[in-house]
């Protein structure tokens, strides 16, 4: 794989995280640059690790992993998204100052894992190509870190406009990403 193909792959792999981060940022009260970078780092590290894991698994048992990865991603994203929709619907319209300023570490990890399972599947596929998996994984992780951080900051501007609907919107985005992954894999 050449440099351009690696950059395009890295950008494509980061789009799920970007969409999820916009929803996460919109549900927070004025997320800081520190929170954006924290979220970006969590998403980026996980997104860099998953193609490495997929690559290692791909060397051993690719047909078993590729048969189920889309169902796992769909399930995780559907559960996380549904949880966000329900919590958003339960909230009374509140002052923006009452919204949280950050998300819990484990919630971000779960969201990052759910949005990075496609990168694991890509890693499985890369096991059959002559690629430098470490360079590719680092490019994917860096791209995801930048895009997720930008998503949180973009969500910062959408949150005050959307009010309590920000969390519902974020949940719907996660469910949509999960459905998209499922439809894409079932259509093959």
Structural write-up:
This protein is mostly helical. The protein has helices at 3-26, 33-66, 69-90, 105-126, 133-162, 165-186. The longest helix is centred in the first third of the chain and has 34 residues, at 33-66. The model has no long low-confidence stretch (mean pLDDT 80).
| Count of separate DSSP helical elements | 6
What is the CA-atom radius of gyration, in angstroms?
17 Å
Structural class given helices, strands, pairing? mainly alpha
Described by strand count, sense and barrel closure, the largest sheet is: none
Count of individual beta strands? 0
Distance from N terminus to C terminus (CA atoms, Å) equals 23 Å
β-strand percent reads: under 5%
Helix content, binned percent: over 70%
- Any low-confidence stretches, pLDDT <50, length ≥5? none
Average pLDDT: 80
**Topology as H/E string?**
HHHHHH
**Shape designation:** globular
């Amino acid at each position: 794989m050449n440099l351009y193909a690696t950059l395009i792959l890295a950008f494509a792999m980061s789009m799920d995280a970007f969409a999820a981060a916009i929803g996460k940022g919109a549900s927070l009260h004025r997320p800081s640059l520190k929170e954006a970078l924290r979220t970006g780092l969590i998403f980026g590290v996980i997104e860099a690790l998953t193609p490495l894991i997929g690559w290692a698994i791909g060397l051993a048992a690719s047909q078993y992993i590729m048969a189920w990865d889309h169902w796992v991603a769909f399930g995780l994203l559907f559960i996380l998204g549904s949880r966000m929709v329900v919590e958003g619907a339960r909230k009374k319209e509140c002052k923006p100052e009452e919204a949280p300023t950050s998300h819990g570490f484990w919630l971000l990890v779960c969201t990052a894992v759910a949005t990075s399972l496609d990168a694991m599947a890509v890693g499985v596929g890369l096991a059959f190509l002559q690629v430098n998996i470490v360079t590719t994984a680092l490019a994917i992780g860096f791209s995801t870190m930048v895009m997720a951080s930008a998503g949180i900051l973009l969500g910062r501007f959408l949150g005050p406009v959307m009010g309590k609907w920000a969390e519902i919107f974020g949940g719907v985005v996660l469910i949509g990403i999960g459905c998209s992954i499922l439809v894409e894999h079932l259509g093959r």
